[in-house]
Amino acid sequence: MGLQRFEFTQVRMGVDARIIVYAHDEERAVRACRAAYTRISELEQMMSDYRADSELNSLCQQAVGRWVRVSPKLFYVLWRGQKLAQQTDGAFDVTVGALVRLWREARHTGKLTDEATLRSAKARSGYRLMELSLPRRAVRLKAEGMQLDLGGIAKGYACDWALRVLRRHDITRALIQMGGDIVAGNTPPGEQGWRIELTEGGATILSNAALSTSGSTEQYVEIDGVRYAHIIDPRTGLGLTNLVLARVRARDGITADSLATAAAVLGETGAKKLERLYRGVQVHIVKPGGS
Ligand code: ADP
Ligand code: MG
To answer: What is the distance in A from the centroid of ligand 2 to the CA of 152?
Structure first.
């Protein structure tokens, strides 16, 4: 029997997680996708900053001034985040959680936080305040009240894992999308690849690769005529105020997701630098800076 297309959507990590697969029958598609969603749920329980009992949040509680051992997957994501922070001089930085919380508060109240509160949150942010030990697979934080935030990297990683789980169930023709992050496996039968419609118009073809889009155009709060996006510029401590949309094509989701967030902060020159650092990666600034 030929392959049929099946599509599922469930909410994970605060977005619609969409899985499209080609399988011989519905039962196999359902079984494989259920396993993929279960894996994404496990990752969410590890990495969510919204859930008080996530592994990430207990780490923030426990790791100030002492080493705390973490699960291999969480360690890997923190490690990748820390590497990118060093490469981008902190433009991408998973320790910006305190600043992200201020942004969420501002979105709620419609007001910017006062200088002193901002200064305090900035003092609790910065990748140099997080130490990682590979041999111990452990994390140590240097400042009280630090909040880690994997919102710019975890969805791409979750898509990678979903594809891996599907493959273990013998499904190779698949696509996973979580918000702006897409990971594609083998092509649909008889096709060149997965056709992805782009928000700015046009389309692109994807197979065995990842595509992430990130920027200031969708999630923002407007205060006194200024738009502050949900991506923090760690230099100011505030959300990006320029209009920018960055897109990254990479071999895997964790790379595409994190580099797209970094490129949104860094803009055109940073995009070039990221391409030099990560071989085979394409970084495209769809909408450049300016106000
Ligand atoms: P989206 O969440 O819309 O897919 P991104 O992948 O760009 O977009 O991630 C944005 C999220 O990343 C924010 O909601 C926040 O949780 C986190 N974040 C914000 N600023 C930074 C930053 N400078 N470096 C790393 N992560 C960030
Ligand atoms: Mg991202």
So the answer is: 4
